[in-house]
Amino acid sequence: MHCTRFPAQVKSLPIASLKSVIRDLIAIRDCTYSGRPLGEEEFTRELEKDAHRTLTPQKRGPKKQSGPAPQQATLFFDPF
């Protein structure tokens, strides 16, 4: 089978190097789809600081509620 998606330089790489190239390409593709920067933590933190927005993935789902605030009044319901 002849692969035409990779240039000749990539096709001639040893298997270990080829795995590294594929891993890097997957990382680039994943960051492209998610819109997140690809780089080390320090680089990403600097980008967040400059852009004034969060760029790193956050915890998913709704925020956990800690219970009613102490200043909130408690209401009682007496059906009878």
> Regions with pLDDT < 50 over 5+ consecutive residues?
none
Shape: elongated
Helix content: 40-55%
Contiguous helical run count: 3
How many strands, which pairing sense, and closed or not: the largest β-sheet? none
Question: What is the first-to-last residue Cα distance?
Answer: 81 Å
Give the C-alpha Rg. 25 Å
Order of helices and strands: HHH
Strand segment tally: 0
Which whole number gives the mean pLDDT? 80
Structural category = mainly alpha
Our estimate of the beta-strand percent is under 5%
Structure notes:
This protein has 80 residues and is mainly alpha-helical. It has a domain of 44 residues. It is built from 3 helices and no strands. The protein is elongated and about 85 Å long. The chain starts with 7 loop residues before the first helix and ends in a 29-residue tail after the last helix.
Write the layout of secondary structure elements.
Blueprint: H1 8-11, H2 15-34, H3 41-51
Which descriptors would you attach to this protein?
80 residues; mainly alpha; elongated
Could you provide a short overview of the structure?
The protein has 80 residues and is mainly α.
